[in-house]
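User: what does the whole thing look like in 3D?
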Amino acid sequence: MSNERFLAYYRLSGGKHEAFRKAKDICLEQTVEFPEELVPAGFIRDHVVGRIESFRKTGKDACEARISYACDTTGGELTQLLNVLFGNISIKPGIRLERFTLPKKLLKGFEGPRYGVPGLRRMFKAPRRPLLCTAIKPMGLPASKLAELTFLFGMGGIDIIKDDHGLADQPFASFRERVRLCTRAAREASRRTGRPCVYAPNVTASHPQMVERALFAWREGAGALLLSPGLAGYGIVPYLSCATHLPILAHPAFLGTYVLDPSSGISHHALFGQIARMAGADASIFPNFGGRFSFSKQDCRSIAEGCTDRMGPWNPIFPAPGGGMSLSRVPEMLKFYGQDVLFLIGGGLFKDGPDITANARRFREMVGG
Amino acid sequence: MSNERFLAYYRLSGGKHEAFRKAKDICLEQTVEFPEELVPAGFIRDHVVGRIESFRKTGKDACEARISYACDTTGGELTQLLNVLFGNISIKPGIRLERFTLPKKLLKGFEGPRYGVPGLRRMFKAPRRPLLCTAIKPMGLPASKLAELTFLFGMGGIDIIKDDHGLADQPFASFRERVRLCTRAAREASRRTGRPCVYAPNVTASHPQMVERALFAWREGAGALLLSPGLAGYGIVPYLSCATHLPILAHPAFLGTYVLDPSSGISHHALFGQIARMAGADASIFPNFGGRFSFSKQDCRSIAEGCTDRMGPWNPIFPAPGGGMSLSRVPEMLKFYGQDVLFLIGGGLFKDGPDITANARRFREMVGG
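Assistant: Here's the predicted 3D structure for the full assembly of 738 residues, as structure tokens:
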């Protein structure tokens, strides 16, 4: 057992008195889940129960509590760490997990991102420029059509051509057929252009299909995996990364509710930045500001920081803004995100005219590729 | 491919005009994720895209849309069904998934609960009375102490003695030692009382540890499994049920945010009722009204209905209200839930005096056991 502790920062709604009561409640709820008066004195009360390390008023109706927990409460496990950070208190209104910091010992127990920014830059021979990603769609096309799109995007110089996150194993385009044809199409485009280009199938599924699909994709030569941790669970990410050595793109499906209400849930920074990275994603997809979702510039900035701020020995990962983007937005996004970004333009690349290879090429030229 | 469709009911914020725009947006966002004008005519536009089946104003600032999706969009898979129901639109404010209905063909593709109410009633030789559950705690106790508690609760006639959901594989009480000692303790209590009594370890973990722990628990003779789908993913539930044939108790940790804001997320009914049941949980734990959480009577009623309303061939499952309950609340809860309920009293059973076997016995007597 160890004395080390990690820190979680919570935004608590209410005046000082009410918010402090919430902070004290979190200390019990997230650890011993036991009436305070019955918590055994000594080790459990002093060490296992959460501890308020600081508390301050941050606004008219909000306070911030910094609460430390014994690293031992997590058992060194991702799912239990998430549980200590936000398990039961997810059910209580007026508590938002803003961010967390982990001591080295705890960080080391998680693999973190296998590639992240430096690894993907090497893989795509792109030492400086942003990486480019698009999605094959719409659902309902046969696998052969999706493979054709993959090829056309690849010829235009897109680095990662991913499944739309709703492509699973539907009768329109079964997983295996799609993966066979699309990996081949990406490889062929790469051979012709002389540039790396990979296909990233969506492997989100139930157990054990998710593992089977990831391994199948790896054997067929897919170059990355797309998955939605909100549906698949975060706990599968390190395993898939380890089993396939493929880069992982995390998709935000089913997770949005956590960030919508600024007084509860989990912050953009922690959810799409820190947690995605901790689980081992190499890029974290999220809806860009000004698209068809509602994230603000500040939300997006905080995600990018969660992806790239120093976090022990872990590589920074690519923030991957998408969701209703178009080529016309690229200059603004370049200015906002800088070079360490993976641009995801899906439907928008189709909108720019019928020649999608030409559209993709323009995309590539805009980022200096 | 089939023409069958399933139905989702959404609550949409805003006046008629705004809400109808949201409904139209959902039809695209949840399926083709493609600009409307580019959706190919014919099969994809007519069949794959969601369809507004009805739309009505339900309040001053709210409407209800009934949207149908092709069953084929789900590929017959749990994770993809959840994705179609609420994946990307989780990121959009003012949309709440209220409930859904699945045609027989789609229902049949999911196992549903293996035991549910009739199966657990047989298992615990309790043809009519509510089932009783408690939790061993607090975190920080060694395995031997947790086993002692298991035994004492078992002697008092508790049916299911579960891990506190925060017990994982911590150094205080490793998973394997805890499971070995607690299964033995429950068995010994059962032998002495002549009544069925089982221990339910928490198997929530990352992959592949979760499967390993469930199988270990099964081999050691555990009688049920506890897991938190918000951390583990729903897609593991059918597998664990199938691999161990043990009843599954679903815990709400990390899921609370979905239900907190009545204008977004997922309804109590759909999340803790329908979805838990669809995934194959045999009992769904949730915080009772009037405890240390904030669910209303109506919320709890709607969960109980989601657990027990007719849903194709699936067994009803036990609603399992808990969270700050005490013996004094039992008569009120009996009146509210009737007999088809699994009462979960954790910390509250410790509060009633130092003899926890006596407390458990009183609990049992109160439900007519």
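In plain terms: Chain A has two domains: 5-109, 116-366. The CA atoms of residues 276 and 284 of chain A lie 7 Å apart.
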